[in-house]
Amino acid sequence: MRILADENMPYVEELFSPFGEVIRAPGRDIGADMLVDVDVLLVRSVTKVNAELLRKANKLHFVGTATIGTDHIDQQFLSDKGIAFTNAPGCNAYAVCDYVLSCLLLIAERRQLTLAGLTMGVVGIGNIGKRLLPRLQALGLQVLVNDPPRAAAEPDFQSTPLNQLLQQADIVTFHVPLQRDGEHPTFHLIGPSQLELLKPNAIIINACRGEVIDNHALLQHMATHPQLSVVLDVWENEPNPNQDLLRAVDIATPHIAGYSQEGKAFGTSIVYDHWANLHGHAPADVQALLPPPDLAAMILAGAPKQSILKQLVQAVYDVRNDDERMRQAVNQAEYFDRLRKTYPLRRELLSTHIQFLELAEPVARDTIAQLGFQVRT
Ligand SMILES: NC(=O)C1=CN([C@@H]2O[C@H](COP(=O)(O)OP(=O)(O)OC[C@H]3O[C@@H](n4cnc5c(N)ncnc54)[C@H](O)[C@@H]3O)[C@@H](O)[C@H]2O)C=CC1
Ligand SMILES: O=C(O)C(=O)[C@H](O)COP(=O)(O)O
């Protein structure tokens, strides 16, 4: 069996090589000729899997993407051809939550904001959005949620209309899939008229797909609303985002919100498990793939004030490093893909235990656990 895999997908040899030959290629270079005699194709978000790519595939029986998003995959075509497919739902959801927390606490510090009592709107309450809710509540934020597809399917789900959420929220974060058509499209969900609804000093975070926010309209809006704070992990026209926008935003990162070691291990293992299940093999032991974290534990003595929470979160994941790396590299050739390929090892908050001294308030334990750390009693 021949397994063609994106070179940036870790753990493929560990899991798939007992069953065949693993061939590696840069995701953007995977072309039709490479698919001849390939049985299994393993991709990330940069490879468009469609009729054009698969026109010479003569043996392909399985395609897996080690991502949550599926907008790069023509699933109808795969189904029509009888090619099994899976993505990796939820694989890096905790990593994206860590990213949002790190950004929020950083911007709050820069703007000297107390987060408790502010209102945060979460657009898209799927694997990421729903894990984010308790974390935001731990920071004392009032949360509004918007998810019309869930509201349509679940009678008890209360979805705040998008326009109302944009008007009322001090902070808005987006966690929707990119959908260009259908009943609930998200392409340019946020354009000029939606931007006008935002509070002038709002904070907006996009860590889902660049095309969900009209980048040109955002740049224009920022020119006349200098108090707006903007965090972008994803961009229109990746890997060549608009450089004026990149310089204008408060935090700029190269589509790495989900790039924790755990997220990558789960990405590959979820895909492997799907394939293994089809062929009667045992599932992967994902914990065995992960090395022990460098920062195994921290000790907390006092109350979990915002400044302390910021220190705890930044000790594990400090988004300033990713922002700095992007700004320093922006004039170099192919910087976007290189930053992603050479991304440093990053662990999730969940990999670190927090211990408490006797005098720590009992409520501290709940807050810290809700934020996503492991709590040691
Ligand atoms: N920046 C990064 O590194 C990463 C980005 N992502 C992106 O984040 C997206 C969301 O991830 P998950 O929460 O795991 O996906 P999910 O599929 O579990 O949840 C998405 C939610 O969005 C809702 N939704 C769909 N259309 C909507 C609309 N028009 N308005 C409001 N809500 C809508 C769905 O009903 C669903 O509840 C992924 O599709 C992917 O594109 C995911 C992981 C990492
Ligand atoms: O999971 C997703 O969806 C993502 O956006 C990925 O984390 C992005 O990573 P790559 O697949 O582009 O390496």
UniProtKB/TrEMBL annotation:
Q: Which Gene3D superfamilies match?
A: 3.30.1370.170, NAD(P)-binding Rossmann-like Domain
Q: Where is the catalytic site? A: 209, 238, 255 (proton donor)
Location of the Erythronate-4-phosphate dehydrogenase dimerisation domain: 289-356
Organism this protein belongs to:
Neiella litorisoli
Q: GO terms for molecular function, please?
A: 4-phosphoerythronate dehydrogenase activity; glyoxylate reductase (NADPH) activity; hydroxypyruvate reductase [NAD(P)H] activity; NAD binding; protein dimerization activity
Query: What name appears for this protein in its UniProt entry?
Result: Erythronate-4-phosphate dehydrogenase
Quaternary state and partners of this protein?
Homodimer.
Instruction: Give the classification, highest ranks.
Output: Bacteria, Pseudomonadati, Pseudomonadota, Gammaproteobacteria, Alteromonadales
Query: What range(s) does the D-isomer specific 2-hydroxyacid dehydrogenase NAD-binding domain occupy?
Result: 111-257
* One of the protein's GO biological processes: pyridoxine biosynthetic process
